[in-house]
Amino acid sequence: MTTPATQRASTDQSVLDRPVLAIDDLTIEFRVRGQWHAAVRDLSLSVGRNETLALVGESGCGKSITALSVMGLVPKPQGRVAKGRIDVDGQDIVRLDEARLEKIRGNRVAMIFQEPMTSLNPVLTIGFQVAEALRVHRGLDAAAADAEALRVLEEVKIPSAARRFHDHPHQFSGGMRQRVMIAMAIACKPALLLADEPTTALDVTIQAQVLGLLDDLKTAYGMAMLFITHNLGVVATIADRVAVMYAGEVVEIASVHAIFARPAHPYTEGLFRAIPRIDRSEQTLSAIAGQVPSIDRMPGGCRFAARCPLREPACDASSPRLEEIAPGHAVRCHVRGPARRVGMGAGGGVGG
What is the pLDDT of residues 103-160, one digit of tens each? Predict the structure, then answer.
């Protein structure tokens, strides 16, 4: 016999099992010289609760615009979401108007930007900026918002947070400013945290501290995290799964262990070969020839073909599909796809 309590428990479990972020067949376009061109094409991703998905690739691959689309911040009128869904907790935000999006931004979805000094207001104190989200989204009065903001600043380990509550951003170091940005992002305990290269400008020691802090906060709040980076060392530290992006498409997606042990796509292998090795006294870094094509000059076949050492005629003739080559491991490649699984990981793993 099904009771109301059983039905509620079943509903609650289905909600917990549902991905926090589910992007389905997303295409984002920009107008260039009067014509629309896709910067992100047919993108599908999901991130579950208490999971970190790292989005990896060179500059210009579409990583940041993907995160901005989740925030509903694709710049208009020169940019648009041409098709697809972006579900956050089961709600498609692509269909929401600006007023409803404002209730989600900084509340259910929050973002940490790459350079805090361009995101923090230089004339407002850091305490005011952290408390603002609590006043707007939680309806707290000034005293309650300040008290909660102070607690959050202490949680992100700002030294002497009470004394520095009324300081301005320029009075903090780069690492401390990034902690303030993290405090602003987590103040309302978001379900989804977007981190756009939040450690790029930091030295290695501070970078490690910030990564550890983000991982601790994710676990404490059960957040889903989309972590954007070009640094594979950071990926190894923080990610559960990895999506490698090239020219607006995901070319490989797998668990962090599978990506490091058995990279399948030639682009992923090229990224690994460009990493300096601390266990070798002499080494020659390998560079990937060429550059990411601009959105108005995308090739008709495989977008990586012009830079690929494994290029074949089929690569220029048609665009490969993203296909699974092992459970949870998919690749977009004619040569390394499921029909021709040859040489997988040859020289490409981190131990190679």
Answer: 999 999 999 987 778 889 999 999 999 999 999 999 999 999 999 999 999 999 899 9
DSSP state string for 146-195: HHHHHHHHHHTT-TTHHHHTT--GGGS-HHHHHHHHHHHHHTT--SEEEE
DSSP summary character for residue 349:
S
Q: Which helix (H) or strand (E) holds 216?
A: helix 204-221
SS3 285: coil
Q: Are strands 322-326 and 329-332 parallel, antiparallel or unpaired?
A: antiparallel
Q: What is the pLDDT of residues 58-79, one digit of tens each?
A: 988 999 999 999 999 999 899 9
For the chain, which residues make up each domain, given as ranges? 263-352
Are the C-beta atoms of 61 and 1 separated by less than 8 Å?
no
Read off the DSSP letter of residue 133.
H
DSSP class of 306:
G
Q: What is the dihedral of CA 180, 181, 184, 190, to 10 degrees?
A: -130
**Which residue type sits at 1?**
M
Structure tokens that stand for 206 in this block: 């501070």
The pTM of the full predicted model, rounded to 2 decimals, is: 0.87
